[in-house]
Sequence to fold (170 residues):
Amino acid sequence: MKRYLLAAGALALSGIAAASAHSYLQKDISILHPWARPTAEAAKTGAVYLSVSNRGETADTIVSASTPVADKAEIHEHVEENGVLRMRAVQGGLKLAPGTSAEFKPGGLHIMLFGLKQRLEEGTSFPLTLVFEKAGKLALDVRVQRGPSEAPADASGSHGAHSSGDHKAH
Ligand SMILES: [Cu+2]
Fold:
């Protein structure tokens, strides 16, 4: 009985952890925490970041992306041309070799949104669908937040607590 309760507790906890980590698993593809930066009122473009892994034994390809909040979504990469960092669409989709991961992050791979129909507001989320050649369609929920996932607070109070120099003793 006790053992059962413990197991149930652990299960509940891992459920919560999975929810806050905000991840998806379909067939051999796992996706971790899709997010986008908030946009300004008149912005027509945005970008979505996430981490995707192919846990399978065959390659898969992200062939397309779409979202109801934008006219078009494209997989983009940054490339350096003559010392200038430019972004361009990844032609033919993004290949994921078996056992590899791809990080979509600021300054690198991203899913570019063109023709935004609404402002991306911090604290909200919006749907995005990724289509994989083998794993099929994955419907994601993209969180709008200012930066990459905040690391779990490890505020152990190890800094910033020095006593001030001009402290006057009575
Ligand atoms: Cu782009």
In short: Residues 22-144 form a domain with the Immunoglobulin-like fold (CATH 2.60.40.1890).
